[in-house]
Amino acid sequence: MQCTEIQELIFLDAVGAADEPMRSAVSRHLQDGCIECQLAQTEAKATAAMLPIGLAPATPTPALKASLLERLPAQRTSATPTQANVEAKGHRAADNRPARRPALWPMVITLAMAAAFAIVAILSIDSNASLAKDRQAEMLAVATLKGSLARDSINIHKLSATMTHLVLAQQQKISFLQARLKNAMALEKMVGSPALEMASLQGLAPMRAAWGRVMWNHKLKMWKLCAFNLPALPADKTYEVWMITAKGKKMPAGLFKPDPKTRSIMMTPTLPPHRQIMTEIAVTIEPAGGSLQPTGAVLLAGRINSSL
Predict the structure, then answer these.
(1) 26 touches 6 (CB < 8 A)
(2) Between the CA of residue 159 and those of 19, 123, 156, 163, what are the distances in Å?
(3) Residue 143: enclosing H or E segment and its boundaries?
(4) Is 88 left (phi over 0), alpha (psi -120 to 50) or beta?
(5) Would you say 255 and 279 are in contact if contact means Cβ atoms under 8 Å apart?
(6) Which of 6, 66, 79, 301 could cross-link with 83 by S-S, CB 3.0 to 4.6 Å?
(7) CATH value at residue 266
(8) Of 276, 281, 254, nearest in space to 266 by CA
(9) pLDDT of residue 141
(10) Within this chain, do residues 202 and 168 fall inside the same structural domain, yes or no?
């Protein structure tokens, strides 16, 4: 079901008009974590709680007051044990004195207390109605505040996620720039040294327009290869650099793909683990991931005379 349909069922459930299938559909939807419908349920409950406030307070009618007064116990006069004993003794003594009148004060006090209780009960009805109205207003205010806080929490969470993403992106950019700065400073140091040596690379068929330079500095133990006019390769192919010894042994020295816009590359060849004399450097096209020995034709090559 769509959120609009669920929100209609939410209002029916808030006022007690939803049946069991409707309540089950609402419960399943809310358990899926729909924030919009959770907020709608909070607002629906707050609205339903306000419905009784629109009803006029119940004011006791004269009939109700009369009914309360009728329920008060009637005070009956009866002879006390002392009076009965006196009368019995009077009869035995043949006392002809007139009988004592029963006291009226207990009856008056009882009626006064009953009237007071009735007045308190009547006033309590009005007071309870006023308290109930105030309580419902407080509940509505709390529900509204909860809904506002829930929306603020969602907005803060979204803002926090956005800021975190921006910070991570900036950190990655800073790391990239720091790495480029480090390479630029190392290249400047290498090129500015009197120990710098350089050789040219020539393009071979079918890439005669390609050309490059290879630079090395034995004192700094640094190598750089620059190549230009290199066509882009499919995803399953890559360029691979080879160091070739005087005996013709080809040693893999790294993989690269040129920049698609400039069709150029500057990379650092991987030097062999043991000291050897290199006489040539070459570039071929190999399967993605590289090869242990060249499988494609040499497309870029140049002679060097260096001891690694």
Answers:
(1) yes
(2) 39, 54, 5, 6
(3) helix 105-191
(4) alpha
(5) no
(6) 79
(7) 2.60.40
(8) 254
(9) 87
(10) no
Q: pLDDT tens digits, residue range 122-171?
A: 655 556 667 777 788 888 888 888 888 888 888 898 899 999 999 999 99
Q: Say which amino acid occupies 206.
A: P
* Cα–Cα distance for residue pair 80/13, rounded to 1 Å: 64
The low-confidence residues of the chain, meaning pLDDT below 50, are 75-81, 84, 86, 88, 91, 93-95, 97-101, 103
Which tokens go with 208?
């005669």
Neighbours of 239 (CB within 10 A): 22
The reply to whether 100 falls in a domain is: no
pTM given for the model: 0.45
| Final residue in a domain of this structure, among 158, 176, 191 | 191
State which residues form the domain around 10: 1-55+109-191
Helices 3-14 & 35-50 angle (0-180, nearest 10): 30
- pLDDT recorded at residue 42: 87
Q: Using one digit for the tens of pLDDT, what is the confidence trace for 248-269? A: 899 999 999 999 999 999 888 8
> Do 212 and 299 lie in a common domain?
yes
pLDDT reported for residue 300: 95
| Three-state DSSP state, 286 | strand
> Which stretches within 51-104 are classed as H helix?
62-70, 81-92
Q: Which residue has the tokens 């650092």?
A: 268
Pair of tokens at residue 148: 């506002």
